[in-house]
Design goal:
By secondary structure, this protein is mainly beta. The chain is built from one helix and 20 strands. The chain is flat, with a radius of gyration of 18 Å. Pfam families: DUF4397.
């Protein structure tokens, strides 16, 4: 399995930034943990930089100088409950302190990002923990997971102007299963409007690839995304299937995506499947 880190500002393009994580699947005896810093500078309105120190397990793992739009190297941890603290380096302010429980055989991503209030305004710093879907992907297909971790209200995930997933709220995620190939003009717009917040452009999705997109912003009024992908999840290679479009079972923690008509969806993603779920694991303060 190969893992690559990708990132961008403003209008986002999928481009490698030169980091390769360990080329192995999650083990049965340890937990994988990715760390995504998606909290912009001055998001709290106090003029401070958001460069932080992350401490996992009371000094077991310490990452200094972690800047916004960073994906820290994947780490393997024994299953346990770990205290996680995040401290802003500019003034030593403790932004986050909570216990996180990790289970063996599970891959997680911890995302530091703005929390928002009922008026869709940034009201603090939080960490959301997601389970990464590393399940086998059918031959000829790939997946894209979009995680709403920006300081803004609900968004619509679109291809061009057609909505494939509507009303995705912070801090939830949505997953699309698509035929491998080019997915055209992928973007996120403020829910119910044509105002684009994030532009991914034409996304090339390889067979067996799972792309994880973490919404980032606002940063000086602009939005972007922090992105990494995991490859090598495919089953026996085969032709790209035609498939059908529809919703999969979301489980008890799921929320429903709004769709802009079944016919439009089928024309849009030609065989994609959309699943939505809330962040699967929560940090306990």
């Amino acid at each position: 399995m190969r893992n690559r880190i990708l990132a961008g500002l403003g209008v986002v393009a999928l481009a490698t930034v030169g980091f390769a994580a360990p080329a192995n699947a999650v083990s049965d005896t340890t937990a994988d943990l990715w760390l995504v810093h998606a909290f912009p500078d001055d998001a709290l309105g106090d003029g401070e930089s958001s460069t932080v120190t992350i401490d996992i397990g009371n000094g077991a793992i310490v990452l200094d100088g972690v800047t916004p739009e960073t994906v820290a190297p994947q780490v393997d941890l024994d299953p346990n409950t770990y205290n996680v603290t995040i401290t802003r380096e500019s003034d030593s302010t403790e932004l986050f302190n909570a216990d996180v429980t990790l289970e063996a055989g599970v891959s997680y991503t911890a995302v530091a990002h703005p929390s928002i209030d009922g008026d869709d305004e940034v009201n603090g710093f939080t960490v959301s923990i997601f389970e990464n879907d590393l399940s086998t992907i059918a031959a000829g297909e790939g997946k894209i997971t979009v995680r709403h971790t920006a300081g803004v209200g609900a968004v619509d995930i679109r291809s061009g102007s057609a909505v494939v997933a509507g009303g995705l709220a912070n801090p939830n995620e949505g997953t699309l299963t698509l035929p491998a190939g080019v997915v055209s003009d992928v973007n996120a717009a403020v829910a119910g409007t044509d105002t684009r917040a994030i532009e991914l452009g034409d996304v090339t999705l390889a067979e067996g690839q799972h792309i994880f997109v973490h919404a980032f912003g606002p940063d000086g009024g602009d939005f972007g995304a922090v992105i990494f992908d995991i490859e090598g999840l495919h089953s026996t290679p085969g032709g790209i299937p035609g498939g059908t479009a529809g919703l999969v079972d979301e489980g008890t923690n799921g929320i429903a995506f709004g769709l802009a008509g079944a016919a439009a969806l089928m024309l849009l993603i030609a065989g994609g499947v959309i699943a939505v779920r809330r962040n699967a694991v929560t940090a306990e303060r």
